[in-house]
Amino acid sequence: MAHHVTVMTRTGCHLCEVAEQDIERICGELGVAWSAQDVDSDPEWRAEYGDRVPVILVDDAEHGYWRVEEDRLRKALA
After folding, report:
1. Largest CA distance in the chain
2. Is 2-75 assigned to CATH 3.40.30.10?
3. Can you give the pTM of this predicted structure?
């Protein structure tokens, strides 16, 4: 099964920048597609994720927030 990782992010968020770098590295090593979405671009996303960015989604299901748990993410993508 091909996985997809999404980082729910916000402009000017330092933790989001760190999470995106981690996701880019991990997904690059594993050959997994990923993308970033700005929570402020959609009112529903802002309501759902706004207080917890960055939020990491794996296959559209919430996997974690604030920091990338690398070992846990790698297991989810294996």
Report:
1. 34
2. yes
3. 0.93
